């Protein structure tokens, strides 16, 4: 604190007190500056967004893989059913061929007589 003496407009002097303070500039490291702090926060946010996107992609890939597996299993089941149906058709065709041969043989016997 100090005293300051000033002359008034009428020639008299007046005394007032003034407070002066001196401060040293604070030493800041590079990471403590506002710009560096903002950059660090921005980098952390970008990393969190990247991790969130990767997590979302992993979850989507999991759902796709599960759906693909389910559809593949349905396809295998359908192919097995088709194979079974074709085997039944083949067996029925052989029976038909045998019956047709018997019928033809019977017709030939009848025509001979």
Verbal overview:
By secondary structure, the chain is mostly helical. The chain is 70% helix and 11% strand. It has one helix at 34-112, and strands at residues 2-7, 13-18. A hairpin with a 5-residue loop joins strand 1 (2-7) and strand 2 (13-18).
Note the beta-strand portion: 5-15%
Helical segment count? 1
Q: Pick out the low-confidence regions.
A: none
Q: How much is the radius of gyration in Å?
A: 49 Å
**What does the largest sheet look like?**
2 strands, antiparallel
Element string (H = helix, E = strand): EEH
**What do the pLDDT scores average to?**
84
Question: What structural class is derived from the secondary structure elements?
Answer: mainly alpha
Q: What is the strand tally?
A: 2
The backbone outline, from C-alpha atoms, is rod-shaped
- Oligomer state equals single chain
Q: What is the strand arrangement across the widest sheet?
A: 1-2
Gap between N and C termini: 148 Å
